[in-house]
């Protein structure tokens, strides 16, 4: 059962708050909510949210890990998607989506939009139709576990590998690719890149290139482990093989209900965030990088760091 035992207010301040957006980080993931200013949710909202989340929970695992849908009618209509990592089995996907739904309903239940990033899956809902859209303006960046570094020469090989993977994953039928690179004496490094399957190839490319650039631009970062999440795509790099062997068909199912494609409402969501090592408040480097990302002006968001007692998404 996920529980946030200890919520520590982090120092990121709201620059000019028109939004109530809150982002919370924990060891393996993060969530972001936008609570209604008055905390008031209507009965229709609750009904729609429940039916949307149930549909995602039920259908995503059996649709090769991706489902998008809408529920209800305006003004209470909600849009959502759930997506699992491309290498994750249907049962693991089901349990991850379940966890993400639990986070959303417990922690964001007064929010008209929310996103939950876990290691093996992603969940998002909003009262604006964000499906199929990604133009770079809504980045949420959550680099996780930047605790260990590599020799610069190894790191350079890893960066090169990841930039190739970021360029190639959008060409894959599932907008997903995982692989490894030989870095010499230090062995291999492993990477994974994935876009949400509602995106076009061009939108995916935009997202992965943007995520890569956002993280590395101007800095030859040497981390041997990082996870980057955004609203449209994710990237993970590590020194061990963290992904499962996978085979995917060459022709992916659509995984999107017809209902979701009909509205032209625009999402109002804007969130940028950054993850640090959790439970280490003396980590000045990590804090500095939070400020750096927040200061890029992509978001005005309160950020919290959570010490999570229970490991919520470890199932293996
Ligand atoms: C809404 O709920 C949050 C969390 O319980 C609380 O901090 C906030 O003050 C509430 N806002 C209003 C306007 O009641
Ligand atoms: C949200 O959760 C809180 C605490 O569990 C509960 O008191 C409240 O009624 C819930 N609100 C909705 C809209 O479900
Ligand atoms: C991105 O899309 C949103 C919603 O469709 C729009 O408001 C915003 O201006 C767009 N940004 C760019 C840079 O095109
Ligand atoms: C962070 O990275 C270190 C070293 O690679 C690893 O031992 C640790 O388990 C990682 N932590 C998480 C939460 O993944
Ligand atoms: C890519 O992003 C840029 C802005 O960052 C936007 O102008 C362009 O329309 C996007 N292209 C696609 C295909 O989403
Ligand atoms: C990575 O290592 C290289 C070589 O030591 C160094 O120049 C660079 O500043 C390091 N990157 C960061 C972000 O510390
Ligand atoms: C995964 O693939 C690797 C390389 O092809 C192979 O050595 C390994 O046995 C496979 N693992 C499983 C569990 O199938
Ligand atoms: C906190 O950070 C310091 C310095 O980077 C490190 O030595 C220490 O092990 C970290 N503590 C935890 C609990 O991660």
TrEMBL record:
User: In its keyword annotation, does this UniProt entry include Cytoplasm?
Assistant: no
N-terminal signal peptide: 1-21
Which locations, inside or outside the cell, does it occupy? Answer: Secreted
Checking Pfam families in the record gives: Stress-antifung
Give all residue intervals belonging to the Gnk2-homologous domain: 27-130, 136-242
Q: Which UniProt keywords apply?
A: Glycoprotein, Repeat, Secreted, Signal
Family per record? Belongs to the cysteine-rich repeat secretory protein family.
In its UniProt entry, what is this protein called?
A: Gnk2-homologous domain-containing protein
Lineage of producing organism: Eukaryota, Viridiplantae, Streptophyta, Embryophyta, Tracheophyta
């Amino acid at each position: 059962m996920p529980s946030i035992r200890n919520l520590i207010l982090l120092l990121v301040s709201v620059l000019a708050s028109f939004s109530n957006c809150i982002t919370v980080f924990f060891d393996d993931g993060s969530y972001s909510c936008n609570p209604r200013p008055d905390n008031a949710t209507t009965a229709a909202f609750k009904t729609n949210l429940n039916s949307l989340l149930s549909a995602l929970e039920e259908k995503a695992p059996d649709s090769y890990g991706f489902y998008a849908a809408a529920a209800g009618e305006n003004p209470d209509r909600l849009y959502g998607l759930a997506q699992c990592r491309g290498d994750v089995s249907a049962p693991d996907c089901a349990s991850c989506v379940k966890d993400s739904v639990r986070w959303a309903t417990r922690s964001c239940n007064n929010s008209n939009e929310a996103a939950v990033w876990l290691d093996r899956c992603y969940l998002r809902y909003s009262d604006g139709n964000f499906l199929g859209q990604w133009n770079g303006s809504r980045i949420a960046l959550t680099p996780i576990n930047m605790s260990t570094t590599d020799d610069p020469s190894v790191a350079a090989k890893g960066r090169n590998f990841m930039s190739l993977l970021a360029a190639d994953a959008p060409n894959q039928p599932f907008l997903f690719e995982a692989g490894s690179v030989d870095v010499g004496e230090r062995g291999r490094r492993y990477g994974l890149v994935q876009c949400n399957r509602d995106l076009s190839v061009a939108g995916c490319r935009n997202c992965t290139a943007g995520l890569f650039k956002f993280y590395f631009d101007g800095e030859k970062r040497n981390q041997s482990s990082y996870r980057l999440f955004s609203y449209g795509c994710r990237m993970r790099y590590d020194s061990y093989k963290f992904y499962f062997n996978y085979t995917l068909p060459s022709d992916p199912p659509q995984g999107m209900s017809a209902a979701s494609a009909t509205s032209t409402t625009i999402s109002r969501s804007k969130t940028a965030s950054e993850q640090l090592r959790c439970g280490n408040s003396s980590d000045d480097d990590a804090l500095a990088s939070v400020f750096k990302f927040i200061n890029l002006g992509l978001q005005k968001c309160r950020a919290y760091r959570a010490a999570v007692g229970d490991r919520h998404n470890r199932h293996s």
